[in-house]
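Thread amino acids onto this structure.
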């Protein structure tokens, strides 16, 4: 099949495979291990993310929903970082996988300790093709920033819930713990399902 006729096929294939995975198991280590393999395949290809879901914003990083499972067992989000942009210190409360598509991300780990959330003094730089896991069991608190000062960076995330609607936690500018619900940056999602060009080409 020509990728030109069906550019979004890698994302659709990922969604299909993740749907099969969450049908077969709810075991977090299995989801993280097998989801990592699926995400690695998705981010190995940099041709499927439509420009509408790769747009940075000068005001803040963007989080575009690409797909949410109808039973909210997983969601897929593109995070787009402009130069200099970063998250607050935050948690997720569910399992998640972060795969680098373009550019680079700097991730600094935090952890709850004695009623506070403190730096673990551990940081990683993610480059294209690299994947990091988060969850309350493997480490759930971090700050993520664009590691590049001169251009946007993009990572593709998959979480074990409809992440934009999950009540979770962050540190505010004064270092106080706050609840937050992230939402999404757009009301639109990609159309995974228009396979008509491929079907027409097969019939011709
Ligand atoms: Fe995060």
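Threaded sequence (204 positions):
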């Amino acid at each position: 099949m020509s990728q030109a006729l069906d550019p979004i096929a890698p994302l659709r294939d990922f969604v299909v495979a993740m749907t099969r995975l969450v049908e077969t198991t709810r075991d977090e280590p299995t989801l993280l291990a097998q989801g990592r393999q699926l995400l690695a395949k998705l981010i190995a290809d940099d041709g499927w993310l439509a420009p509408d879901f790769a747009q940075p914003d000068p005001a803040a990083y963007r989080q575009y929903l690409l797909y949410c499972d109808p039973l909210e067992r997983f969601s897929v989000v593109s995070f787009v970082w402009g130069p200099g942009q970063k998250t607050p210190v935050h948690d997720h409360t569910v399992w998640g996988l972060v795969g680098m598509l373009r550019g680079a991300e700097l991730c600094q780990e935090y952890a709850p300790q004695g009623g506070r959330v403190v730096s673990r003094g551990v940081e990683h730089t993610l480059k294209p093709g690299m994947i990091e896991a988060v969850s309350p069991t493997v480490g759930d608190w971090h700050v993520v920033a664009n590691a590049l000062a001169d251009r946007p960076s993009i990572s593709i995330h998959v979480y074990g819930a409809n992440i934009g609607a999950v009540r979770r936690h962050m540190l505010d500018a004064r270092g106080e713990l706050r609840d937050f619900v992230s939402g999404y940056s757009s009301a639109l999602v990609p159309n995974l399902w228009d396979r008509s060009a491929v079907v027409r080409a097969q019939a011709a």
